[in-house]
Specification:
By secondary structure, the chain is of the alpha+beta class. It is built from five helices and 17 strands. The radius of gyration is 18 Å and the shape is globular.
Length: 291
């Protein structure tokens, strides 16, 4: 076994109305993941609450909390006890009237390493996140943990190759994607459902290949209101091969062993990093290239 082999666990679970119950459930799942040998555990997007962004209401703002704060304190103590790294997506209250969709990263000794604020904020039917969240302003991050260098992007960030590239360029070997994505319950076509899910997966597999990194997406499960979350949490190696995948329904702790020493092999055989023409990419910062 390589000295750089890391076992990760993705927590795919359903949520209830009570944040306290959801946090307790997540703690239980993290304990189970640690018992299964996990070194890094990633929770799904906004794991302490129902996915409240299906509508625009003022009441859910009461769920927001500071980071670090009450939930991260619980998880810091747990990480130190179990010796695991924890990635936790929470509704952050930054200031009065200013909120973010944020992931906290806690090292295996309980140290709070920092946070990533979701950069791309959707505004689609059933996903009215712009009502709740201010776009992130911390940029793309890499966190040096006991078990390797990791990056975190959140859900809608999954569709943007620029986000994955910049996270990889900062040195992340694994990119974690806490996620809450699913079908509208009114969508009954199996063909449409399958194509939506496959597009979601394909986009992330491409990030793994193009950047020579492991990609791990932790999605929620269950039906909430008008959304049926499709689960299917998965882990891809840097060649875009799915090495572990959860069921599309139901709760699951998904384990995957990632040999980080193999990244050099992948990148030497497909040397995309070597051949990047960074001198030619200036226009990428333009909204559109007119004319």
């Amino acid at each position: 076994m390589s000295k750089e082999e890391v076992r990760i666990a993705l927590i795919q679970m359903s949520c209830r109305e009570s944040p306290a119950e959801n946090l307790s459930k997540a703690v239980e799942r993290i304990r189970s993941a640690a018992s299964g040998g996990a070194n890094i555990v990633c929770l799904q997007e906004l794991f302490t609450t129902l996915y409240f962004c299906q509508t625009e209401e003022y009441e859910p703002f009461a769920y927001a909390e500071p980071i670090p704060g009450p939930s991260t304190e619980v998880l810091q103590a747990l990480a130190a006890e179990l010796g695991v790294v924890i990635v936790a997506s929470l509704f952050e209250s930054r200031a009065r009237g200013l909120h973010h969709n944020t992931a906290a990263v806690i090292d295996a000794d309980g140290t709070y390493l920092g946070k990533y604020r979701k950069m791309h904020i959707p505004d689609d039917p059933g996903f009215y996140e712009k009502f709740y969240f201010t776009p992130g302003d911390l940029g793309y991050k890499m966190f040096r943990t006991r078990f390797g260098n990791i990056g975190v992007l959140i859900c809608w960030d999954q569709w943007y190759p620029e986000a994955a590239r910049l996270t990889a360029l900062r040195g992340a070997d694994i990119i974690f994607y806490p996620t809450a994505i699913g079908w509208a319950t009114s969508e009954s076509s199996d063909t449409v459902r399958s194509s939506q899910r496959q597009a979601w997966k394909t986009a992330q597999l491409a990030h793994a290949v193009a950047n020579g990194v492991f990609v791990a997406a932790a999605n929620r499960a269950g039906t909430e209101g008008e959304l049926e979350f499709w689960g299917n949490s998965f882990v891809s190696d840097p060649f875009g091969q799915v090495i572990a995948e959860a069921a599309h329904n139901g709760e699951e702790i998904l384990f995957a062993d990632c040999d980080l020493s193999r990244i050099a092999f992948y990148r030497s055989h497909w040397p995309f990093m070597r051949d990047r023409r960074i001198d030619s990419y200036g226009d990428i910062t333009r909204r559109w290239i007119d004319g």
